[in-house]
Fold these 2 entries.
Entry 1:
Amino acid sequence: MFYRFTVGTRATEELVDITDKVSHFVRESLVQNGMCVIYTPHTTAAVTINENADPSVRRDILKGLDALNLSKVRFEHGEGNSPAHIKSSLIGCSETVIIRDGRLALGTWQGIFLCEFDGPRTREVSLTIMG
Amino acid sequence: MFYRFTVGTRATEELVDITDKVSHFVRESLVQNGMCVIYTPHTTAAVTINENADPSVRRDILKGLDALNLSKVRFEHGEGNSPAHIKSSLIGCSETVIIRDGRLALGTWQGIFLCEFDGPRTREVSLTIMG
Amino acid sequence: MFYRFTVGTRATEELVDITDKVSHFVRESLVQNGMCVIYTPHTTAAVTINENADPSVRRDILKGLDALNLSKVRFEHGEGNSPAHIKSSLIGCSETVIIRDGRLALGTWQGIFLCEFDGPRTREVSLTIMG
């Protein structure tokens, strides 16, 4: 089963909680046991799983990535967004989550986030669900 | 096929070799060719694959992550464990390993590690095996 | 379906575009819809997805990883390649890409790269394709 949706980001850097959207499609797929691949087809965005209870965690993740001081490096790429490309490769453009009893087997504190590193833009997210 | 086990970590930060446990469940699944997703449902832990021959490598990985100087950043999140959350997103909470001829197709030097970044705690690891 | 190929790297650090090779095996598999796991069984190499239009991006990714200053840390591991092990865990030794209509569902600017962090060497890449 294959699904696709878009996310409109509103800042240069932002973590957008997409857990509810992914859960919706997992239910729609009727897959009871299997896995869901969450994939974003961009090179300056990423997908991660982290705490979605306290919204300060997602801001701290961006702060932590900024502390890597990538903005101080003299890069070659003409568009000036090399730090965003590197963050995309460090975090990764996909996550795989297990499906159990028709639901994403996320931990109590886990949510799924689209990471925007070069926005604001309209970003695509693809899901493949196999059972 | 779905399996779950727990790992008791014994330090604030530690890489625990879980290769034998994962291999055990791969054999039990009787899957000959397919893949195994190793997933930890926590936001201050992670799963990685790296060298398990020389134990100094796993300590060096923790040292390398500490060299990112995340502990010097002034974070928002009240629990004081934001560096652990960031390390979790940098390493990632899952790995996917290919299964060939009934065995994990790991490289000669590769082992699977649960990464504890905010321990000691009891951590859960979930496996989904598809063939 | 399982496939394997080798990549000869030519420098200490290098990102090698393997998109065409992976696409070739996806076509050969005749899988129309599913997923492809790209896996490298090494502990000082990795697999990432990033821009393959401007070749300066892949050099900038290596520059960005060098800016993490891992080469300044006093590591334990006797072989002197601990920074390569850490980069391997930060980027990760596999990627999962969705297959749609018999093709890799990569974004317009996305390519798949083998990351060499301790070369030059002959590196192996394994693919598992499920549909």
Entry 2:
Amino acid sequence: MPASKMRDTHIALAHGNGGRMMRELIEQIFAPALANPTLDTHADAVALPRIAGELMVTTDGFTVQPLEFPGGDIGSLAVHGTVNDLAVAGATPLYLTLNAFIEEGFEIACLRRLAESIGRAARACGVAVVAGDTKVVGRGECDGVYFATTGIGARRQDAQLGTRHIRPGDVVLVSGPVGDHGADVMLAREEFGMRGDLRSDAASVLPYAQALLSINGLRFMRDPTRGGLATVLNDIVNATGHGVRVCEAAIPIRDQVQSVCELLGYDPLYLACEGQLVAVVAATAADEAVEVLRRLAPECARIGRVDESSTRVVLETAFGGERVLDELEDDPLPRIC
Amino acid sequence: MPASKMRDTHIALAHGNGGRMMRELIEQIFAPALANPTLDTHADAVALPRIAGELMVTTDGFTVQPLEFPGGDIGSLAVHGTVNDLAVAGATPLYLTLNAFIEEGFEIACLRRLAESIGRAARACGVAVVAGDTKVVGRGECDGVYFATTGIGARRQDAQLGTRHIRPGDVVLVSGPVGDHGADVMLAREEFGMRGDLRSDAASVLPYAQALLSINGLRFMRDPTRGGLATVLNDIVNATGHGVRVCEAAIPIRDQVQSVCELLGYDPLYLACEGQLVAVVAATAADEAVEVLRRLAPECARIGRVDESSTRVVLETAFGGERVLDELEDDPLPRIC
């Protein structure tokens, strides 16, 4: 049966009803953008080729507002976010599933751009979107589009990572400047008229993670998304019972991000990154780790250490003082990812 | 660090910020409800035990309104929907991931009930929820809660299923009365004051699917959700190029569902089921398939056959006439699943 050409310009409730319009939406928007040999948009479930190594799985939802921002969009974010969760767990990402929740009246041209962005990001990361589902909800029951992605990967045999491996004296590294994504989305959202060249760092951290996996003494990796660097450091404290001391002067932050934060009253240490990773390595492996990482991430830095004498995250300020970085309480920037 | 007791009664934006309140939400609502040995709510990705057999994956989003209805809720539906997609593909469901999109102001007691319903349904189906993610969006940016689940299973070696195996003359079966879920949700939504004992059929079809897999001559199975029985039959026509003829008198429909549909102007053949399956079997295997299925599903029925002489779904009416069952155009009942 020849597919009729999709002529609608905006999403209707009938694009979610299981009938003709839903079939056209999937066949004409999602299937071509995501095309790969494993994807079968007509099947209830798809069979995956055999995976060598231990299977790892993760899932993430995406509600960022605005949907498109300098440096990325909710589509590329939905790929990178899940790829990054697998990468920092020591896995090679292989397959994604995709859920879309779409608001009635959403512009189909925008949906096409987002689907194409998902396809591009997935190909660049070497992952295939193998299954998907779309739901359409009424006007005012969703804000444009939300995505959820589940990632399946294979753990590298040499990856023995986790907070349980962290020891006092271990060194904390970050792959590059923090807060770019948060500051960028904040500006894109608020239209402060001070854009400059600030862009989200939204990207895959897979190359960084894979380079660090060669380091004997790598303990733990995480990508600092919601809640930023300070939240990852608090996660380490909560999981290990040890404190973390970081040096303010050593933490890379772009001048522009710093300025935006000072102006608007945000702390860049709590702003989301979407293309950085935090790593904890044994003190004896720190120099090698920085050297390996610097080849790919020239702005990476050694920012602190795990500290037995405290059970907090302590920031040594540029003025010689100390400040505790507590867990986030209120939400400074909802829908950042 | 001792977890502080969650005292909030409603979801705040800060329950999605990556900080303390999100940690409490996950540790105190989701983790206990979903508890299983593989789930690790602190990890970026979890490692799965080795899976024997070909890996199969599927994903589904859930937006049903109301969230709780006679016979189920959006939580149990999110488990059964994905379990059923794996089951009809000939796989044994093993693992689920769960995404929750939650509206600011949502009642935490209801979220707890839904999480517990997910846990109960998962345990009953023999699947473990191994990874999850929660996002909180502002008031009016979501309608209560939406879920997405991705399912991972292992294909049984004897399962060679798919529309490509369907041949003219094959017989179409259904496991029981159609339209229960759609009619039930419609009533729960509209408060027509005519509830009676109508309940959603929301349930796992895994036992039916596994019983039918023993039949030599089983070609294809599908659970008729959005768009109902008529949509599955149209999917068969679209995929095979052959017509399907079904006999109205043979299709099981509860009197109550029929009455509700007549009163409100719906066609039960297009109403969602959430606990039935449609199977296509070789004509020579049809008697055996019905016999096997009837032990588990006493109301199962042989409803029609694949028909080379047409390329439509044709209903032979109770009055000796014929009616074409076309693909759905508009959406009679949005947010049915």
